[in-house]
Fold Acyl-CoA synthetase.
Amino acid sequence: MSSLFPALTDGPPGRPALRFGERSLTYGELAAAAGATAGRIREARRVAVWATPALETAVAVVAALLAGVAAVPLNPRSGEKELGHVLSDSAPELVLTAPDAELPAPVRDLPRLDVDAHGTGAVPEDRTSDGDPALIVYTSGTTGPPKGAVLPRRAVAATLDALADAWRWTGEDVLVHGLPLFHVHGLVLGTLGPLRLGGCVRHLGRFSTEGVARELNAGATMLFGVPTMYHRIAEALPDDQELVKALTGARLLVSGSAALPVRDHERIAAATGRRVIERYGMTETLMNTSVRADGEARPGTVGVPLPGVGLRLVEDDGSPVASYDGETVGEIQVRGPNLFTEYLNRPDATAAAFTADGWFRTGDMAVRDPDGYVRIVGRRATDLIKSGGYKIGAGEIENALLEHPGVREAAVTGEPDPDLGERIVAWIVPADPQAPPPLEELADHVARRLAPHKRPRVVHHLDALPRNDMGKIMKRALSHD
């Protein structure tokens, strides 16, 4: 297939490619460093990458892709048990890491190759095909040990090219973010994306509103973040004119990995006049939909299917939903070149993930507007509540609760109810812990905004909601005890 990174060989060698803090590489320097590492791993089948937010991680992954070797990003924050599972399941021949990295026990058992970010070597001739594995990314494992999603090279290319179309993303763009590099968001979109297009990525190392303001005010054009980051931005905006100026001048603000509450959308828009756009993807599918740069930024939606992606909503029995009316809830199923090929060593799970006619079952529930915009209402397993004969998505109730001035954070789950089937339970972090809003007030607030059958019947007050590395609420950790 054609190269994933044509700018490494065809573009100006002095063009900036990567910057992590004070350290940076041009395209010429990246080609030399990745070429040197690629030359040392060409005989391997798979390599692990100790995916810290460092220059060496980007060089290592690019090197693996140049060498035609599948890369397995390792989360440095994983426990030893999870790391042991990932390594035994994927069986990499060696681990690529920054020279100063201290590796935990399971990873220390692998042969280690320290990546030289200033090494010199030639970019190898491309002998790959588009179906060859590019990355094996492990899912979060909420229902058992993490599964390794095998992402082929065509999926990486298809997703990045579709996003370039949707976002008018070019080599002139400079992207800033502080996302982890062991997830699709920070690694594929946030690092490989700019490199495929010949642009530049400036990684903050650790997210901060000060870093965002500094980089956007110094020529960066795009910001990628997760809802937790945009929430912090929304909180800081009223008192930070540098941040207001930075966001106002940005070309594109993109949020992903979880739903951005409508309240934060509106606060950012009110302060800057700029709309954050959302997109929707998964480890197994890369990107499926997005609000387009030339489309309407409709808060609470993830836009329309990307070029090349087929998307449909289906009922519990697999039949297509009757109408796209913005109200009828169905499970999202997708197909296209952006999909993974299999769960590594799990033919049973792979077969169960696809329908007989080749659609991937996402497990995400959504409604679709007549004009094609998709609004996700939650995961089938944790966010779909069947109450009083209605299918109710937790996401819209959470957004409604967040519009109440007494609510700082909100999560919604269902619990068994002998009359309703399931009753709606709200988990609230109050704005004022000394005066949390009572159930009746919250129930009336939701009923007025949505519908009476969507009001919570139980409320729990918490100091904080349990979240993972990407800011997603871990609903299985919310106990009804």
Observations:
- The mean pLDDT is 92.
